[in-house]
Amino acid sequence: NAGVTQTPKFQVLKTGQSMTLQCAQDMNHEYMSWYRQDPGMGLRLIHYSVGAGITDQGEVPNGYNVSRSTTEDFPLRLLSAAPSQTSVYFCASKLLAESTDTQYFGPGTRLTVL
Amino acid sequence: AQKITQTQPGMFVQEKEAVTLDCTYDTSDQSYGLFWYKQPSSGEMIFLIYQGSYDEQNATEGRYSLNFQKARKSANLVISASQLGDSAMYFCAMRSSGTYKYIFGTGTRLKVLA
User: Fold this and answer.
1) Each residue of B37-48: pLDDT tens digit?
2) In this structure, is the dihedral angle defined by the CA atoms of residues A4, A35, A107 and B43, taken in order, positive or negative?
């Protein structure tokens, strides 16, 4: 089991560029989510999905798109990067019916937008 | 609206002593879950402990216990016998049962002194 994997680990973009952050899990988890972590702000939910073909917005969805075509993958797309999107991005997943509601996090992607 | 408040930006504790990290929450829902995560300097998010709102007993996991006071809407994390490896950022989080959205606090940075 690789758990939750994220690529890349680091990325530098110029303002206006687009890119996709990859997230994959091999635990057959229905629920997947994306967070951003900024200093002093904790983690904020961007988008989440409860299964293939089903996505919904979190607390800070503007500027980001997601899709869920398979159970395993949940990519996060930045359409036109802005310096305000400089952050550390975490992907997480969990079983919907798990008793302790535990999310398993990936190692994170550190994104810098110049 | 749901909210998590962690009022201690930083804490120090002597090795082998116990420490309490504060967390208060705000929700109008009756059914919800509360969580604590640890984030070491390496950056990964590690699940520590879960408490359901209907659980009558306080949750415990090894040296971690959650002091759940429902009427006060507090969910403090108690770490007993602190170790140097406990030095990290600690996040309190919650999820109401009627939503798939998790809310995180801003975190408390704990430093264990030798």
Assistant:
1) 999 999 999 999
2) negative
